[in-house]
Amino acid sequence: MREEDIAIYLQEHPQFFEDHAEMLAGLLIPHPHGGRTISLSERQLLALRDKNKALEKKLHELLAFAKENDELQLKVHQFTCTLFDVADLDVLQDTILYQMRERFAVPHAVMSLWDVSPPSAEMMTFADQTAQPVCMHRAMYDTAEWFGESAEHLRSFAYLPLRNAEHSIGLLILASEDQQRFYPEMGTLFLQRIAEVVSAALQPHL
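RESULT FIELD:
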């Protein structure tokens, strides 16, 4: 008889366990971590403990993720408030890049505004057609040179198109030597919020 047949039989005849309760009480099975045998009830208790540990770990991860989100939301809020106090375009650009480094701990940040520095045709098309931030492990088009001598050390990039209601007005690029700081599969909700705040702050000056 195959093990599958036994499993099917027990599933189809649950009264078997009631009819043979004494046998089940005395049944010994291998300990899940080896070394000895234990009763079926002990094995069930161990399984419940393992499940509880897994649930506690998952809960801890969720709480940590929630705390991280709360901290990021606060930083975005503080960032927004900071930009409200800036009236000069040059100072505003410097403030945005400074905030990226100091508040968000992004080691490298550059920004280009089309009214000040017209982009290549490829970059303009990308910015106009991209509604959400894009993360990747390589620099796009000619943007690596925007980072000067640091370019050869950068391993991850986040491209944040800056937009008004109709089209792009510029591009903010965040970069890091850490390959896992920005990666294609990461969520971009907070990057999108930053892009929206920066776009709104810049528009009155363009």
